[in-house]
Amino acid sequence: MTQSIRTIGIIGAGKLGIVVAQLAIESGYEVYISGSGDPEKIRLAVDVLSPGAKVARTDEVVHASDVVILALPLGRFRQLSAQSFAHKIVIDAMNYWWEVDGPREEIIPQEQSSSEAVQEFLSDAYVVKALSHLSYHDLHDGARPGIEAEVPRKAVAVAGDDDKAVRVACDVVERLGFAALVIGPLAQGRLLEPGYPAFGASVSLDELRHLTKQ
Amino acid sequence: MTKRTTQKEYTFGIDSFGDLAVDTHGTLMNHAEAIRQVVREAVLADTLGVDVIALGEHHRQEYAISSPEMVLASIASVTKNITLASGVTVLSSDDPVRVFQRFATLDAVSNGRAQVILGRGSFTESFPLFGYDLRDYDKLFEEKLELFSKLLTEKPINWQGELTQHLEDANVFPKTESGRLDTMIGVGGSPNSVVRAAAYNMPLMLAIIGGSAERFAPYVELYHRAAQQFGNQAQPIGMHSPGFIADTDEEAIRVAFPLFKEQMDKVGKTRGWTPMTREHFMSEVKSGSMYVGSPETIAKKIAHAMRAVGANRFDLVYGFGPVPAEYRERTIELYAKVVIPRVRELLQEAR
Predict the structure, then answer these.
(1) Which of A53, B70, B135, B324 could bond A31 through an S-S bridge, CB–CB 3.0 to 4.6 Å?
(2) How many separate domains does chain B show?
(3) In this model, does residue B264 exceed pLDDT 70?
(4) With the C-alpha atoms ordered A57, A62, A67, A73, is the resulting torsion angle positive or negative?
């Protein structure tokens, strides 16, 4: 079924969204991307930085895509239209960032990992946490698309509750040029958040396995 | 713009965030000592012909400089040629009128050597400190930059601010002798900021503090394309990156690694980053944005990066972390005497 993933939608055209769009284009996906509001605001930046990606409104991006990647500031996910994500596979690449998002408890209930809160909000989507623990420049410099799995690649951790969605996310991660490491259900995504050893880690599969052990 | 620095084909600067240096006894300097150390280093750089010194505004324990223009004014009185820049002035949490006045004053006392680099800053301590709401992060910068660009005309202005003051036919002093305060915008890779700099027709200063410099080449293209779209002429591009220069690569790496690590980990801790490994450091040294090595290694790395990015200015962020004063001064000396001439040579050869 992973063969059927042809289009990737990216919500957020900042540093992370632009890099993910570049990688997705290079990996042969059809890519849609949105910023906040009017697509014209990001058209020039996308045309120059991620040529080939199509600019659209967020609801159009979600509608057009097989997999949606969230790359907006975490503090804004509740502004998304939850019903438009129904039955979509969603890769949550966002991180809580105190400097931008303010106190964590104001946006995420204390007992939840941030991706669980995203899943609860996008209740009819299949949310997987991935592409979140590498910095955007390590994502850019570390991607090795089209390389045989034997060659050492940087690892990207994947956490999710739905098996099929996790498989699809792993396939996307691999095709973007990384080694996917499934670390368990969405609650385990906590281990990838700021303050945990894997956050910021641009390392091999073995090392990441070690860093995500509890 | 008629400033000396923009007339030259290539410009080379040194930047400091005001990191606390370590003295000859191995003790961390206090804030006052660290500020006086920067003044001494500026004199050294001026004597050796470095084009610019840029001082960043920070409001954290490990940095001494929160008021760059105060230190720059002091430097102005003991130097002759070096351009005196901020890197950056956090405009979002400052008053644009006061920023203009302070730098116009610096421009006066330094005979036209002032340069203000406006940015949003990579830290946010200044927001609560000066009574600003972080939730207005984007809006504050956007609005204040617009007001600042009006102030740069040095004519009376009218302004109806949402988060800023209301001004009616307000005339702001002192006026500069050149008629235009030398102003750049510092960006860290946000596409929006690049487009904004082009819209205001201001030169761009790229903070490249991790990963490959090549990654920024498309941002420079974006800047040029955006300038074209706004009907503006593309302005010069600068870049700054951290570095440490010693006589040999081995010595530079041996001394710099623990110091860089200490600084990166301290900052990283507040952001939840995992501590920097030696492997990560070495990959930054080899192909990333840490300019650590012998003069020849660093000259090649800088020339390569400037060509890859399309930059005509390079600023070395020296004294990154708790670096002993003698190594800070040695870095400046080797940079000025060996690296800069060699980079100029390499850039000429490549033509």
Answers:
(1) A53
(2) 1
(3) yes
(4) positive
Span A192-209, pLDDT tens digits: 999 999 999 999 999 999
pLDDT in tens, B128-137: 999 998 888 8
pLDDT at B274: 85
Residues of B in contact with A98 (CB under 8 A): 271
Q: How far apart are the first and last CA of chain A?
A: 32
Average pLDDT, chain A: 93
- Domain range for residue B138? 4-349
Contact B331, B324 (CB under 8 A): no
Domain ranges of chain A: 2-211
Q: Chain A: residue nearest B188 by CA?
A: A15
pTM (2 d.p.): 0.91
Q: What is the pLDDT of residues B291-348, one digit of tens each?
A: 999 999 999 999 999 999 999 999 999 999 999 999 999 999 999 999 999 999 999 9
Q: Tell me, yes or no, if B273 comes closer than 8 A to chain A by beta carbon.
A: yes
Q: Which amino acid is at B70?
A: M
**Tokens 């240096």 found at:** B21
Q: Cα–Cα distance between B28 and B22 in angstroms, integer?
A: 4
Give residue A22's identity as a one-letter amino acid code. Q
**CB contact residues (below 8 A), chain B span 132-151, against chain A:** 134-135, 137
| Residues A202, B288: C-beta atoms closer than 8 Å | no
Q: What is the CATH number of domain A2-211?
A: 3.40.50.720
For residue B174, give both structure tokens. Answer: 């002192």
What CATH number is attached to the domain comprising B194? Answer: 3.20.20.30
A13, A44, A140 ranked by CB distance to B215: nearest = A140
Neighboring chain A residues of B191 at a CB cutoff of 8 Å: 13-15, 18, 42, 45, 49
